[in-house]
Amino acid sequence: MTAKINRINPERLHETPGYHHITVVETGRTAYLAGQCPLDRTGSLVGPGSLDVQVDQVVVNALAALAAVAAEPQHVVRSVIYVRSDDREDLGLAWHRLTASALGPAFTSASTLLGVAQLGFAGQLVEVDLTVALPD
User: Fold this and answer.
1) In this predicted model, what pLDDT tens digit does every residue of 74-128 receive, in sequence order?
2) Which helix (H) or strand (E) covers residue 35, if one does?
3) What is the pTM of this model?
4) Closest CA to 110 of 71, 90, 81
5) DSSP β-bridge partners for residue 78
6) How many Cα atoms sit within 13 Å of 46 on the Cβ side?
């Protein structure tokens, strides 16, 4: 049985810039992807100092992780985006680049965008954590 995913924005809550306040998975299995970082296949940081380049690498990595479990961006039911910045403009840039990418449908589900002081790798500016309702 394929997971049935319902995305809901209750009328009593504020409008969103594309995500839904609530995502309900009726049935199926889930996968929890580790935070996808802007590292290449060798483990080297891509795009030091460039949020755009790092977001693009995170997209590549997240798509590869989804493919490994036979899932696609529309199967994502929860995302958390971490941006190493306290500047709202940087957070907005990361959000817009992610939502305009091939991974974009992942961010129509329940989503959180955070500015943080530090991430795990020196020079890392962005990380994306995804939860997936696996298709059968």
Assistant:
1) 999 999 999 999 999 999 999 999 999 999 999 999 999 999 999 999 999 999 9
2) strand 29-36
3) 0.90
4) 81
5) 110, 131
6) 20
Which sign, positive or negative, has the C-alpha torsion 114, 22, 9, 60?
positive
How many angstroms separate the Cα of 131 from the Cα of each of 3, 35, 46, 54?
A: 13, 10, 24, 21
* SS3 of the chain: helix, strand, coil, percent, to 5: 30, 30, 40
Q: How far apart are CA 37 and CA 44, in angstroms?
A: 10
Distant-in-sequence contacts of 84-89, Cβ < 8 A, 24+ apart: 84/115, 84/116, 84/117, 84/118, 84/119, 84/124, 84/125, 84/126, 85/51, 85/115, 85/125, 86/115, 86/117, 87/115, 88/115
